[in-house]
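Hello again, I could really use a second opinion on something today. I've been staring at a protein lately and its backbone has me curious. Can you walk me through what the tokens say about the fold? Take your time with it, there's no hurry, and the full record follows here:
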Amino acid sequence: MLDLKLVRDNPRAVLGMLEARGQSPELLDGFGELDARRRSLLKEIEDLKAARNAASDEVARLKKGGGPVPEGMIAENRELSQKIKLLDPEVARVEEQERALLASFPNIPDGSVPVGDETANKETRTWGVAPKFKFAPKNHWELGEGLGLMDFGRAAKIAGSRLVVLHDQLARLNRALIGFMLDLHTLRHGYREVWPPALVNSQSLFGTGQLPKFAEDLFKMENGDLWLAPTAEVQLTNLFRNETVDLEDGPVAVTAYTPCFRAEAGAAGRDTRGMIRMHQFDKVELVKVTRPEDSFDQLEKLTRDAEEVLQQLGLAYRVVLLATGDMGFSSAKTYDLEVWLPGPGTYREISSCSCFTDFQARRANIKFRRGRGGRTEFAHTLNGSGLAVGRTLVAVLENYQQEDGTVLVPEVLRPRLGGLEVLGTPK
């Protein structure tokens, strides 16, 4: 959430942000109308209170002097109190509308972010070389189904579309990827592992910015205030909601594997084949809480942590700095990692690494203290996928495929699979 004072005192900067993000300026107009109404009501209440105080002082003076107090003066005082009593709820209502509208403002992009839509995204670096095959490479679903290890039909029978069942070696490979990522981030990169619930409440989703704007992309439980988490960013960030975090020794860094659930309401007709866009998928998430002066340096480090997963797996990728119109709602700066997929012959997103400045911290009330006994202020939060497990599985299948339809296992994963070197026998 943006600083209320910033929006009130510097609307020009906020208007520039909305334009850069491709948002309608009507959002700011609506806020301005509500704020003007709020100020008008507060001025009216102040005037009424001043008049009531003056009338009360006059009544007190007359009583002290022993003189009679006109009945009309007493009635006027009661009327002023009644008007104030009626206006107080109206002020509260307008302030609540103002806060709700403020919650719909996206974050202000960092000055280093290119302005424009997705065509203004900037490739910052690449790593690795895309494999060249002496045969036409297959898509991952052709490979998985051909080996009898990937089953979309039975998943549809169990629950519906955009779901998958993995069997035998492919199920083990999926599990090996999760363990590999968690071990890398905890043992090498210094993250603390967390095993959180997969269910979250509305306050948690508000804290990280999924609610109220993106409710249609979420799955809500019918009974009670519970939702299926769309990403462990929600759980990991909200570990610190309404807390003052100790950052004296540097950033707090946590990681978790969780299943993730998304309705994909806005993705009709996109990636209908395979495992790219699923209702349920696995992800290893990275979250950091930092001091403001450290946050963008920590974004670079977090991004490198996610990149190392791809490097150790030997998967070619590129890093893309997203433009203002392509960033997520809560982000101030985002790098996408895009892995090379031979099947479609293109790069596909496998991780987004973002710095949210104090945007989420204001919504979730996450603070830190400047030194012993110092003042508290809002922290900065960051997160990134380290990585999306299903898409990593897809990338391994497609990049390590062989002409006979079998798939080589990346060397770094073989110890986790009992020395297995090749997936499957083609069918």
Observations:
- Residues 26-64 form the longest helix (39 residues).
- The chain has two domains: 4-102, 118-423.
